[in-house]
Design brief:
single chain, alpha+beta, 15-stranded mixed sheet, two-stranded antiparallel sheet, about 25% helix
Length: about 400
């Protein structure tokens, strides 16, 4: 562990993060949100993939929810209290990228393109939430440089966007982007949430509540109960609830076929839902895409032109969770902008849990993310539930049919 983590008062140890992840995984397994995995006997693996901020601070721990030898989901826990939420997201399915394979591929690139440099420290970093890369230090007799390679496409990531307010591919620091007020709010939220975790594990494990080294069955945490439950996913069929057998979900994940096609692939998902079918290369010009620069944040005019003005698209630079909830209740998906990235939103949840007399509340969005890139488009992209309050939200593009 880097020395600076040892003296950082906001640092969360792996053991504490694992306890937080267990609570969130148990809540997840109780909710309607997890139809694909809740029928299985599941364990939360105590081994963690450590993910750093590009400023060098530890940012996240990824814990695998396993059923036997199969990974069924990933719990992304915070490694810094100022983030606020003990757990930032829960992702479905196995990990979409292979860390060892990425390291080998990037090592070959360095040998070919930077033969006069010696590679030093390599970190797995979140270079533009939620996108990950490998940050490599290179030195020669004259200089030292640092490069970030996307963990899936192996592209070198630029430090700044060519255009202001662009949604494409560039690096920024998750922690450095938080202002003092956001960090203060985050600390208060984390400290309140962790009291619940401590009370559960003090009763479960005694005083050494964070000395956890083995697998722990998620379903053992049966003390969690719902006080209220409010969840909905986009569905095209309006005759059934989203979790009933007769319902069918027509919102389909499309991965980005180019590393800065996030907004393009998001548009493809939303247009596909409304039964407008285009390739990503056909969509890109209508959204104002430029190679290496991505798309502008406001792509509403492109949505309308591609639907022959049958879809009304509205750019909203002041997104809130309530606005997303209202759109999903109308079965109208939206583009969600975060700094440097675009995703589609196709569901929400707002739940209150009671745990040993205490209550916790969470608000999440159901994200269809076109990242990570994969040469096999069917293997790319990601679907996850994401904590609303932990993320910087920059904009929405809302959609509705204009009859």
């Amino acid at each position: 562990m880097p020395r600076e983590q040892e003296v950082n008062p906001d640092f969360i140890s792996r053991e504490e993060a694992y306890a937080n992840a267990l609570i969130e995984a148990a809540k997840f397994m109780l909710s309607e949100a997890t139809e694909p995995v809740r029928k299985n006997t599941t364990f939360l693996n105590a081994k963690a993939v450590e993910i750093y901020d590009i400023n060098g601070s530890l940012l996240f721990y990824d814990f695998s929810i396993d059923s036997g030898k199969r990974q069924v989901a990933t719990v992304r826990a915070s490694a810094n209290k100022s983030i606020g939420a003990p757990v930032i997201s829960i992702r479905f399915g196995p990990q979409k990228w292979n860390l060892l394979a990425s390291k080998r591929a990037i090592s070959e690139i360095l040998t070919k393109k930077f033969p006069k440099y010696k590679a030093g420290k390599t970190l797995l970093v979140c270079y533009s939430y939620p996108k990950l890369g490998l940050q490599v230090s290179l030195t020669n007799e004259k200089e030292s440089i640092s490069l970030i390679f996307d963990v899936s496409s192996f592209d070198i990531i630029p430090a700044k966007p060519e255009k202001e307010n662009a949604e494409g591919t560039y690096a920024w620091s998750f922690l450095d982007s938080m202002d003092k007020r956001a960090k203060t709010t985050g600390l208060k939220r984390y400290n309140k949430a962790v009291e619940v975790t401590k009370s559960v594990f003090t009763k479960e494990l005694g005083p050494d509540i964070y000395r956890i080294t083995d697998l722990y069955m998620v379903t053992n945490l049966s003390k969690l109960v719902f006080r209220t439950r409010n969840e909905k996913k986009i569905q095209f069929c309006t005759h059934y609830r989203h979790d009933e057998a007769g319902s069918h979900h027509c919102f389909i994940l499309h991965a980005q076929q180019v590393n800065d096609y996030c907004s393009v692939a998001t548009c493809q998902m939303i247009l596909c839902y409304y039964r407008y079918y285009y390739s990503q290369n056909e969509i890109a010009p209508a959204l104002g895409y430029s190679a290496g620069g991505g798309c502008p944040a406001d792509v509403s005019a492109g949505y309308e032109s591609l639907s022959n003005n049958h879809i009304k698209a509205t750019y909203d630079p002041s997104p809130t969770w309530n606005k997303a909830r209202d759109q999903i209740n109308l079965l109208q998906p939206m583009k969600s902008g975060v700094p440097g990235h675009a995703r589609a939103i196709a569901g929400y949840s707002s739940n209150i849990f009671s745990i040993l007399g205490s209550s916790t509340t969470d608000k999440k969005l159901y994200v269809y993310d076109p990242w990570p890139w994969n040469a096999d488009l069917k293997a790319g992209g990601d679907i996850y539930w994401e904590d609303w309050d932990s993320i910087t939200h920059t904009n929405y593009v809302n959609t509705e049919l204009d009859y």
